[in-house]
Amino acid sequence: MGGIAMVYRKGEFQLSTLDRFYPFHVAILIHRESPRERFAFYGELDAFYRSMNEAPRFNCIGRGETEHIIYGFKTEEAAQTFQDRFGGFRIEPTDKARREAEELLRRAEHTASKPS
């Protein structure tokens, strides 16, 4: 039985629980601009997300230039409102979908980094 055991604090939602109660996900690219621009963007994003009273935690996929934060929503309308305001893309709430999205992002980053 190889693998890493996940440790959760008392009362902390596991990802499977989040997927069940917040089935509509939007992935947002983590921007790599200056710290000031990043702070302004995520401050606005976080305030808007918290005002919607959605999932208490989020997930991340990707690495480096393709890292994305995945936000969960109870309704499709809430996810669409969030996506309309901040962009990003929809992702199915399953481990398989997250792995597939991460692989696509990794391939896109690899292709973009190759010299022509």
Task: Report on this structure.
This protein has helices at 15-21, 35-51, 76-86, 95-113; strands at residues 24-29, 59-61, 68-73, 89-91. With 116 residues, the protein is an alpha+beta fold. It has a four-stranded antiparallel sheet with strand order 2-3-1-4, with helices on both faces. The longest helix is centred in the C-terminal third of the chain and has 19 residues, at 95-113. The radius of gyration is 15 Å and the shape is globular. The N and C termini lie far apart (44 Å).
Summarize the structure.
The protein is of the alpha+beta class and 116 residues long. The protein is 47% helix and 16% strand.
Structural class: alpha+beta
Q: What percent of the residues sit in helical stretches (DSSP H or I)?
A: 40-55%
Runs in which pLDDT lies below 50 for 5 or more consecutive residues are: 1-5
Order of helices and strands: HEHEEHEH
